[in-house]
Amino acid sequence: MPPPADIVKVAIEWPGAFPKLMEIDQKKPLSSIIKEVCDGWSLANHDQYALQHADSSNFYITEKNRNEIKNGAILRLTTSPAQNAQQLHERIQSSSMDAKLEALKDLANYSRDVTFAQEFINLDGISLLTQMVESGTDFGDMLSFTLTAFVELMDHGIVSWDTFSVAFIKKIASYVNKFASDISILQRSLAILESMVLNSHDLYQKVAQEITIGQLIPHLQGTDQEIQTYTIAVINALFLKAPDDKRQEMANILAQKQLRLIILTHVIRAQRAINNEMAHQLYVLQVLTFNLLEDRMMTKMDPQDQAQRDIIFELRRIAFDAESEPNNSSGSIEKRKSMYTRDYKKLGFINHVNPAMDFTQTPPGMLALDNMLYFAKHHQDAYIRIVLENSSREDKHECPFGRSSIELTKMLCEILKVGELPSETCNDFHPMFFTHDRSFEEFFCICIQLLNKTWKEMRATSEDFNKVMQVVKEQIMRALTTKPSSLDQFKSKLQNLSYTEILKIRQSERMNQEDFQSRPILELKEKIQPEILELIKQQRLNRLVEGTCFRKLNSRRRQDKFWYCRLSPNHKVLHYGDLEESPQGEVPHDSLQDKLPVADIKAVVTGKDCPHMKEKGALKQNKEVLELAFSILYDSSGQLNFIAPDKHEYCVWTDGLNALLGKDMLSDLTRNDLDTLLSMEIKLRLLDLENIQIPDAPPPIPKEPSNYDFVYDCN
Asked: Rounded to whole angstroms, what are the CA distances from 379 to 286, 364, 373, 382, 411?
């Protein structure tokens, strides 16, 4: 007969004694259990003791987290968090340097536990650490452990960041310059500066006064990717929290310091892979840079503003006049107006009489006019060719440059999500945007030429305008997904994605979707579908057996903790546990401390229904995080919360868990896999294979050739 659900069998260690095997009744108060353990070893004052996990985490067990104790867990009897905090508070003030160093090392380790952190903070421990930093007497490992403990304690969100003095900020800022060779001190100093900026407006102003972009730039020119990541994170934080009127000023400073070129040379084109965290920080920088365009994007043109109207005159002049007309040119005002109206029509504006009215819609507002002027000035030959080419066509086949530019600018802003805050989980940066100081304008110039080319290929008329825009969007999106490394490479990708090629791709996709709709084929589909679904189910379960590394997101993203979860080979137990860092490959079952029997799972919930998504905090409201969140509910109130690394893993895990519970797999991935496999299976079954013997085993893999001289690069 299985033991009651409230009874957990554990081993408890005590230094110098044999471990005890005992059963813990989860209904009994924790203090009673600790008293029982102390009595067994004849220890007095049981209120000065506590239980903690005997693994690398050393986390204390409290009434809040006691439900996480699993059968077979190894626990340790130790001094209570209050006692431990008091002892460490005294030890870190020791006059012996060796004793102080050992105490700070222990403090850095224990500070990861919120229970200990609360007790140490109650003793005014944060103030003690800041005084030690401000005194400037500690260096090397001692300073490194002090800063590590500080970062870990602050990470729990118990103490407000607003409480720190200018002297402390000055000291941390000085470490960024002074300890460039000491990686651990530099890393923690950058992490503290980033947190200060992100968590307090007052501290942002103080940090901005103490640290300059010029002081941060040298750290990007090194070879340590982690330091580069922390440095870009600080720059991003300063950029994100800068007041609107200061943001453009900061962007100008970044341009002066050639930040883009330094990142391109020392990070993007360095001879090493870019890890996820660096990719995220580059994505954030990309978003913040493009968000500088939001002001122009949301600014309507004032038809009465002469300076703005002069831009339209300039567009007309470049296109139609070899030289600017003198103000006292001959001809009546009416004649000139008539000529201007004719030229504005050729330029493709909707309002021929007053084209300024075309720029009153936001978005794209004045940004569209800025793009048009940039194209006309920096790619003058292409601009003149497009305008004159279309003005000489029949009316019904001309591509309206003005209208196209306005709609294209609006589309590009949507694609690049101009004006939206960066996502907490996205890593989607594009290297090509780091290859030019005016990357958005150059992006527009390439795309407006693409639009004109596609218009001609489609032999479009004004009625086909929206169809052309849809095709152009598809061309741009497909080219972007290949992550071209430069704008020239992006241009060549678009050359290969002609309208004819898009039609072929669409036709191929349509055939895959609509193939074989006759009744016999549909009946065959129905017959083999359960077989395919079983195959998908087995694949999902096999992936769960392999396991996945998940991230524990918190408000300070780069202090991430990792944990791993995998299904046992017999599909009866989920093994999971915390990791120090992201693993390379699978993590064996025996190294994962916790278990959850599949039979105990009551439900799997996703998105807003997840318990960890109902908590307060800006991070929890993030749309991308919501789309990757799922939870396993078990027992009366137990829960295991996940945030998948990407959409694919989210689909794999939700499908696999639903399959374990005997429910339908409803993810987009399952739908796509089912369509693909069904289509392949039906095509195979309809092949003319009469008198052809299909082997049971796959053919052997041929030997490698003696050389590869026959290989050449098609590009």
From this structure: 24, 21, 10, 6, 21
Q: Which two tokens stand for residue 404?
A: 């196209």
Q: Is 529's pLDDT higher than 80?
A: yes
pTM assigned to the model: 0.74
Using a CB cutoff of 8 Å and minimum separation of 24, what contacts does 140-144 make? 140/182, 141/101, 141/105, 142/97, 142/100, 142/101, 142/104, 143/175, 143/185, 144/182, 144/184, 144/185, 144/188
pLDDT on residue 531 = 92
Confidence of residue 346 (pLDDT cuts 50, 70, 90): confident
Pairwise pLDDT comparison (691 vs 76), residue with the higher score: 76
| Residue type (1 letter), 11 | A
Copy the structure tokens of residue 446: 């390439």
- Among 186, 187, 92, which residue's Cα sits nearest to residue 130? 92
**What DSSP character marks residue 26?**
T
List the one residue out of 350, 351, 456, 439 whose CA is nearest residue 403: 350
DSSP character for 267? I
H or E element at residue 594: strand 594-597
DSSP state of 596: E
Largest Cα span, the chain: 112
Residue whose structure tokens are 């292409």: 382
The reported pLDDT for the residue numbered 530 is 92
CA-based nearest residue to 642, from 480, 444, 425: 425
Distances from the Cα of 375 to the Cα of 113, 197, 476, 640, angstroms: 57, 38, 18, 54
What single-letter amino acid sits at 676? T
75: left (phi over 0), alpha (psi -120 to 50) or beta: beta
The phi-psi region of residue 617 (left if phi > 0; otherwise alpha if psi is between -120 and 50; otherwise beta) is: left
Minimal CA–CA distance to 369: which of 361, 466, 323? 361
Check: CB of residue 422 under 8 Å from CB of residue 288.
Answer: yes
The three state secondary structure string of 434-487 is: HCCCCHHHHHHHHHHHHHHHHHHHHCCCHHHHHHHHHHHHHHHHHHHHCCCCCH
Q: Are 411 and 469 in contact (CB under 8 A)?
A: yes
DSSP type of residue 27: T
Tokens, residue 713: 């690069």
Alpha-carbon Rg for the chain, nearest whole angstrom, is 32
Average confidence (pLDDT) over 614-626: 58
**CB count in 10 Å sphere of residue 259:** 21
H helices within 179-275, ranges in order? 183-199, 201-210, 213-220, 225-241, 244-256, 259-263
**Digit-coded pLDDT (tens) for 91-113:** 999 889 999 999 999 999 999 99
Among the listed residues 623, 626, 566, 612, the one whose alpha carbon sits nearest the alpha carbon of residue 591: 566
Over residues 32-61, the mean pLDDT reads 87
> Mean pLDDT over residues 319-325, rounded?
62
The pLDDT assigned to 12 comes to 92
Find out whether the peptide bond into 4 is cis, omega within 30 degrees of 0: no
Q: What is the mean pLDDT of residues 554-558?
A: 52
User: How many whole angstroms separate alpha carbon 510 and alpha carbon 502?
Assistant: 12
pLDDT(225) > 60: yes
Residue recorded with tokens 């009434």: 63
Amino acid code (one letter) for 314: E
**Distance separating alpha carbons of residues 470 and 480, to the nearest angstrom:** 15
pLDDT at residue 101 in the model: 92
- Answer yes or no: are the C-beta atoms of 655 and 665 closer than 8 Å: yes
Residue 253 CA to its chain's centroid (Å): 26
Q: 63's torsion region: left (phi>0), alpha (psi -120 to 50) or beta? A: alpha
Please tell me the distance from the alpha carbon of residue 180 to that of residue 186, in angstroms, as a whole number: 6
Pick the closest to residue 645 from 419, 437, 424, 480 (CA basis).
424
AA letter at 193? L
